């Protein structure tokens, strides 16, 4: 498999889908898990500074998952904010 080709196809797909909405910026929920990390990194490559991350910790979130999400954002220069959903 050509992983670089697959990555580029995913980035192109994301760009086209967002373009079809008429929007130019995206917001991605980042949980600290592998799936949201992959999506966040692909979106960062696709949209650059037009991408924001949102961490939404709840009473069920572990400290390690929150720390992983923050570390990911810092490593890949992803702007993020934290919005607690614990009361929900």
Describe the fold and architecture.
This protein has one domain (3-82): 3-Layer(aba) Sandwich (Rossmann fold), CATH 3.40.50.620. The chain is built from three helices and three strands, in the order αβαβαβ. It has helices at 3-21, 34-47, 63-75, and strands at residues 26-29, 51-55, 79-82. Strands 1-2-3 form a three-stranded parallel beta sheet, covered by helices on one side. Strand 2, helix 3 and strand 3 (79-82) form a beta-alpha-beta unit. Helix 1 (3-21) packs across helix 2 (34-47). The longest helix has 19 residues, at 3-21.
- Using only C-alpha atoms, the radius of gyration works out to 14 Å
CATH homologous superfamily grouping: HUPs
In CATH, the architecture is 3-Layer(aba) Sandwich
CATH class: Alpha Beta
Oligomer status? single chain
Separation of termini?
Answer: 43 Å
Domain module tally: 1
Order of H and E elements = HEHEHE
> What's the story with the biggest beta sheet?
3 strands, parallel
- Please report the total strand number as a whole number: 3
Helix percentage: 40-55%
Spatial order of the strands forming the largest sheet: 1-2-3
**Uncertain segments of ≥5 residues (pLDDT<50)?**
none
**Mean pLDDT metric:** 96
Helix/strand-derived category reads alpha/beta
H/I helix tally: 3
> Percent of residues in beta strands?
5-15%
| CATH-derived topology | Rossmann fold
Shape: globular
């Amino acid at each position: 498999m050509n992983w670089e080709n697959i990555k580029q196809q995913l980035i192109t797909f994301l760009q086209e889908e967002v373009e079809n909405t008429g929007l130019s910026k995206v917001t991605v929920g980042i949980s600290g898990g592998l799936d949201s990390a992959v999506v966040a990194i692909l979106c960062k490559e696709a949209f650059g500074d037009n991408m924001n991350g949102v961490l939404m910790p709840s009473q069920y979130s572990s400290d390690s998952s929150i720390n992983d999400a923050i570390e990911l954002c810092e490593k890949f220069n992803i702007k993020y904010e934290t919005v607690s959903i614990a009361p929900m």
